[in-house]
Design brief:
The complex is a heterodimer. Chain A is 52% helix and 22% strand. Chain A contains 6 helices and 7 strands. In chain A, a hairpin with a 4-residue loop joins β1 and β2 (14-19). Chain B is mainly α. Chain B has a two-stranded antiparallel sheet with strand order 1-2. In chain B, β1 (253-254) and β2 form a beta hairpin. In chain B, α4 runs parallel beside α6 (99-112), α5 packs antiparallel against α6 and α6 runs parallel beside α8 (136-149). The longest helix of chain B is centred in the C-terminal third of the chain and has 22 residues, at 816-837. The radius of gyration of chain B is 38 Å and the shape is extended. Classes of the chains: A alpha+beta, B mainly alpha. Chains A and B meet through β2, α1, β3, α3 and α5 of A and α1, α2, α4, α6 and α8 of B. Chain B: This is AP-4 complex subunit epsilon. Chain B: Residues 739-769 have a biased composition (Polar residues). Chain B: Keywords: Golgi apparatus, Membrane, Protein transport, Transport.
Chain lengths: 160, 964
């Protein structure tokens, strides 16, 4: 099962943090800081996997991927496959990319709740439920559309 | 007009996704982003919290504004600040009618609250209502919240609705409902135990997304209880087969791979189901082989699937062909430039060597490369692998490497782990006592108190008892080498407490035993220790006791005792110590020094730490003295319980206790317990009970104290968690305990079994052979790495083994002559012993053509074909195997009503034969061919899948799902 998903930038600022096991806020911050410290110390061209047991307790692994200014970090246990999680990050980022057209750090910051929606479509209660980027997009678009109707309604009322 | 502009902007934002945020929020994000320091950021956030606190409490805030405040709160909490003042507002938002607002509310509460929070009770009602909503998006939002917020007590409140949703027309809802049910199962298995069958049913859902999601709970269920799901093996195999044949919709293709994530999950499940089950495994061989063949190596995800295949192959009942393919893939991984693949390769190698140890040999150089890689993760993984393949022939190299790495890292967690592994390996495989002690010294020196204190006690016991051999000479050699090394180590600054305790104990016990060092040397060192670590009372206590022993031995040997001045001052200082334990020890020391040789020898016998102490509880040796006293007119002793006055005294505390109630006592008085009187003479009474240490076991003290008798028989020693094998250890050590490993030494068997791996096998083996040859001729030319490889893996290549071990021993131990014989002879024994053990490969050759041909009916695909050919009536009376299996499959549907329409059946059969390709007998096809039309193909896919899963006509649920 997936224990946590985090997005942070290269300066260590959290852009997204979702923990699938409840943790108090202070503990979350501590973990994020711990992870960032490890990420910083990693050289280029090394593996994307880190043994996270010293940070997250027994049976936890960490896979990260570095895109431009952002680190995408997934923490999970032995029931997942590291390489597959690496691709899951890829799916996540591809979906974000489709959603925001050339996603950049600012998109994630400013569309905070939308990123959460995308993540919720992918991972549900710590389990990966959807791995098809197009299916995720479909679901997210339907939610967006439903948001749009009230505005259109208001707009037509006002103009009339 | 102003409003209109706002709406226009909202519309613009909405078209981008409808997740509108105001300028204020953007400003906040921007200013935090631009903050130069953590303090500045905090200041901004604290300001923001103030603003929000004020604003959020205002009456009649428009919904849109409120939603934005909540988003800001979520953002603030993500940055690590407390936003609890707004929780209640988030909860209120979930009650809203507007989907947008409601979703935001749900998002906020799932992030803010945990299932134990007090506010949950306010949300349950809303969730209940929302689960019944007509708008499926509302239902989805509610289901999201369900899995995070519903706790064990509230499960019954929402369970009926969630179960209802399992049959919802929208696949997104079904998917989430099944996951919510899984969450319930994780939280409280008993609450949903009657609904477990739903997971099986959803496996046949016609949406691949729902099917894929269902694999998660099934994986979980199977992990907990494998045996109840053996009947699903055929289903999983056929799903996997169809996935690899690209029967799922194109939407699940990822980098040209058909639904790789589903494949991975299925392989994981198969690995569980096939573990140790020959029959189940046989069903899987073909499909796993297919997956191996169809995966492409170029993409990351392809490799992920391949890795999972290896895991599966190494978990199920072994099949030589699959093991060969797995070995191929592993060598590909290890040769790759990508660190990720190397990591996976090392991990996979670790799994596979359990079954076929010979493959490690081919990859020795690759493994050593990984060991020297700058990547820490890879290094650790490699150490894990080495740990798994340690045996007595390579333990020295591996443990030395581990210790070097352990010294180089700062991570305490990993340091502890690797230290305990070193200790474990050293205890299991140590080739010689000297080496063992040296290795332990290093571990202690560098990890110190991170190591379990029991390891220290084991080390002391080992030195005290030797290795259980009768050879006293070897034992005393061991001790003097220990003493020597400890005297040297004491020169180092800052030693850990646990290690110092061991040192003090050994010095006290054996410091002067061999006469190499005189008492004043040792006592001087001990005084230095007590002085240098004056804040550590335990170490001081050990040091003082060690001093006492040394002086006692000196006195007993009739030598003049000349107490050093520093020792004298230490004793005087401790006589006034605040620690009663130290004080007592100092008094004891003082007392012992004043005694004569005879008495001292009696109370402090030399080298008696292993002796059992017989405690004469009746103090019979005093009988004569008492007799004498009584004759002289003394009063005889009256036991305490028989003394009238003492009874009150004994219960005094009890009465004290009861006085607080001031009432009459109605219950009988307790029987007076005779207080345990210290009947041991004061001077001999030890003070172990008072010592403020976690583990009050001072092995040397035990001859005085009845409290902690040293376990002298091995069964007692076994109670310690970290067990040191002391009984007959010498016989065990030096022989590889992991016998399957040695089977690799038989290179002929490797050639026959390992066809593909043979290609690069000999080259590496040859290179190491050359190394040995060249080493024989001209000393020390060979490459460093190859040497390492030879010492790591050399144990498994037979002819060169002798020179290798001989070389190592000469390097490692001082008394090479006797030692070099031991490993060699033991190697011979080992190889003789394992030679017959090499026959098992024949037993394992299950997948060989010969064996499969005997049971062709077990092949699931043939079965499938048979089913396709047959009419439904015939299928019931079909091959024995399928008939025997079908009842199990049918059991799934026992609880669903039977309603079959003939027409539907015909459709189904035709569709099925249509999709199952060339293998099926040509039939009048009804549907069109596998076109690009996703809906069509999806429907057909599910048809075929279901038919594959349940090759039977009595499948009512199927029809219900498919045709409404």
């Amino acid at each position: 099962m997936i224990k946590a998903v985090m997005v942070m930038n290269t300066q260590g600022k959290t852009r997204l943090a979702k923990f699938y096991e409840y943790l108090p806020v202070e503990k979350q911050q501590e973990l994020i800081r711990g992870i960032f410290a490890v990420l910083c110390s990693r050289a280029e061209n090394v593996s994307n996997f880190i043994d996270a047991e010293s940070i997250f307790g027994p049976d936890s692994r960490l896979v990260y991927k570095h895109f431009a200014t952002l680190y995408f970090v997934f923490v999970f246990d032995s029931s997942e496959n590291e390489l597959a999680v690496l691709d899951l990050i890829q799916v996540f980022v591809e979906t974000l990319d489709k959603c925001f057209q050339n996603v950049c750090e600012l998109d994630i910051v400013f569309n905070y709740s939308k990123v959460h929606t995308i993540l919720d479509e992918m991972i549900f209660g710590g389990q990966v439920v959807e791995t098809s980027s197009s299916e995720i997009m479909k679901a997210v678009e339907e939610i967006s559309k439903s948001f749009l109707y009230p505005f259109l309604l208001c707009l037509s009322k006002k103009t009339c | 007009m102003e409003q209109l502009r706002t709406f226009g902007r909202e519309l613009a934002m909405g078209s981008q996704g409808g997740f509108y945020q105001s300028k204020e929020f953007l400003d906040l994000v921007k200013s935090i982003g631009e903050a130069r320091s953590k303090a500045e950021e905090d200041r901004i956030v604290v300001n923001e919290i103030d603003t929000l606190k004020r604003r959020i409490a205002e009456p009649d805030i428009p919904k849109r504004k409120m939603k934005e405040y909540i988003i800001r709160l979520v953002y603030i909490e993500m940055l690590g600040h407390d936003a609890s003042f707004g929780y209640i507002h988030a909860v209120k938002m979930t009650h809203d009618d507007s989907l947008l607002v409601k979703r935001t509310g749900y998002l906020a509460v799932t992030l803010f609250l945990n299932e134990e929070h007090d506010l949950i009770i306010l949300i349950v009602n809303t969730i209940q209502k929302d689960l019944k909503s007509d708008n499926y998006l509302v239902v989805c939002a509610a289901l999201n919240a369900v899995c995070k917020l519903i706790n064990e007590e509230t499960i019954p409140a929402v369970l009926p609705q969630v179960v209802e949703l399992l049959a919802h027309p929208k696949e997104a809802v079904r998917k989430k409902a099944i996951m919510a049910l899984h969450c319930f199962y994780q939280k409280s298995p008993s609450s949903v135990s009657h609904l477990i069958s739903n997971f099986r049913k959803r496996l046949c859902d016609n949406d691949p997304g729902v099917m894929g999601a269902t694999l998660c709970p099934l994986f979980d269920l199977i992990t907990r209880d494998v045996n109840s799901y053996k009947d699903l093996v055929i289903s999983f195999v056929s799903i996997l087969k169809q996935v690899t044949e690209r029967r799922l919709s194109k939407a699940y293709d990822y980098h040209q791979m058909p639904a790789p994530f589903i494949q991975i999950k299925l392989l994981k499940i198969l690995a569980l189901l096939g573990s140790g089950d020959k029959q189940a495994s046989e069903n899987m061989y073909t499909v796993v082989g297919d997956v191996f063949r169809k995966c492409d190596f170029s993409s990351n995800i392809g490799n992920a699937v391949l890795y999972e295949c290896i895991c599966c192959v190494s978990s199920i009942y072994p099949n030589p062909k699959l093991l060969d393919s797995a070995a191929d893939i592993i060598s590909r991984f290890l040769k790759s430039d990508s660190h990720n693949l190397k990591y996976m390769g090392i991990d996979a190698l670790g799994r596979l060597i359990k079954i076929s140890p010979e493959i490690a040999e081919q990859h020795q150089l690759a493994v050593i490369d990984c060991l020297e890689d700058p990547d820490d993760t890879l290094k650790r993984k490699t150490f894990e692998l080495l740990y798994k393949m340690t045996k007595s022939t390579n333990v020295e190299v591996i443990v030395d490497r581990m210790i070097d790495y352990m010294i180089s890292i700062n991570d305490n967690h990993y340091k502890t782990e690797i230290a305990s592994r070193c200790v474990e390996l050293a205890e299991q495989f140590a080739p010689s006592n000297q080496w063992f002690i040296q290795a332990m010294n290093k571990v202690f020196e560098h990890t110190g108190d991170l190591v379990n204190i029991k390891v220290a006690h084991n080390l002391m016991r080992l030195i005290a008892e030797g290795f259980g051999e009768d050879d006293d000479n070897a034992d005393s050699k061991l001790r003097s080498s220990a003493v020597e090394s400890y005297l040297r180590i004491l020169g180092e600054p800052k030693l850990p407490s646990g290690f110092l305790q061991v040192i003090c104990w050994v010095l006290g016990e054996y410091g002067t035993a061999d006469g190499m060092f005189c008492a004043s040397d040792i006592t001087g060192k001990l005084c230095d220790v007590a002085e240098a670590y004056s804040s550590d009372d335990t170490v001081k206590a050990y040091a003082v006791t060690a001093l006492m022993k040394i002086y006692a031995f000196e006195i007993a040997a009739g030598r003049e005792v000349d107490m050093l001045t520093e020792c004298q001052s230490l004793m005087e200082e401790l006589l006034a110590s605040h620690s009663t334990d130290l004080q007592q020890r100092a008094y004891e020391l003082q007392g012992v020094i004043g005694l004569d040789a005879h008495a001292v020898e009696f109370i402090m016998p030399s080298d008696a730490s292993c002796e059992d102490i017989e405690v004469d509880k009746d103090l019979s040796f005093l009988d004569g003295y008492i007799q004498e006293a009584i004759e002289k007119g003394a009063q005889p002793y009256i036991p305490e319980s028989e003394r009238p006055g003492v009874l009150n005294m004994g219960n005094f505390r009890n009465q004290d206790h009861h006085e607080s109630s001031h009432g009459l006592r109605f219950e009988a008085y307790e029987l007076p317990k005779p207080a345990v009187q210290p009947r041991i003479p004061r001077a001999l009474l030890p003070s172990t009970e008072i010592v403020p240490v976690p583990e009050p076991v001072y092995p040397r003290e035990t001859y005085q104290t009845p409290v902690t008798p040293i376990p002298s028989n091995p069964s007692d020693a076994g109670s310690a968690e970290l067990k040191l094998r002391l009984d007959g250890v010498q016989k065990k050590w030096g022989r590889p305990t992991y016998t399957p490993e040695t089977s690799t030494s038989n290179s002929t068997s490797q050639k026959t079994v390992n066809g593909a791996a043979q290609v690069d096998g000999p080259s590496t083996v040859n290179s190491t052979r050359e190394t040995y040859a060249s080493r024989k001729l001209q000393v020390e030319i060979s490459h460093e790495k190859q040497k390492l490889a030879a010492s790591l893996f050399g144990g498994s290549s037979k002819p060169e083994k002798r020179p290798a071990t001989g070389h190592k021993v000469s390097k490692a131990s001082s008394h090479m002559l006797e030692k070099s014989h031991v490993p060699n002879s033991s190697m011979e024994v080992a190889s003789e012993k394992t030679a017959p053990a090499q026959t098992p490969p024949d037993l394992l050759d299950l997948g060989e053509p010969t064996s499969t041909s005997t049971a062709p009916s077990l092949d699931p695909f043939k079965q499938l074909e048979v089913l396709l050919d047959a009419t439904q009536d015939a299928s019931a009376a079909n091959s024995a195997t399928s008939a025997s299996r079908s009842p199990d499959v049918m059991a799934l549907y026992a609880d669903t009503p039977v309603g079959i329409h003939n027409k539907d059946e015909a459709d189904l059969l035709s569709g099925m034969s249509n999709m199952s390709g060339a293998t099926a007998r040509p039939q009048p096809t009804k549907g069109s061919s596998k076109g690009p039309n996703p809906k069509d193909s999806l429907e057909k896919d599910s048809l075929v899948r279901q038919m594959g899963v349940k090759p039977s006509s009595q499948n009512p649920n199927l029809f219900k799902d498919l045709l409404g």
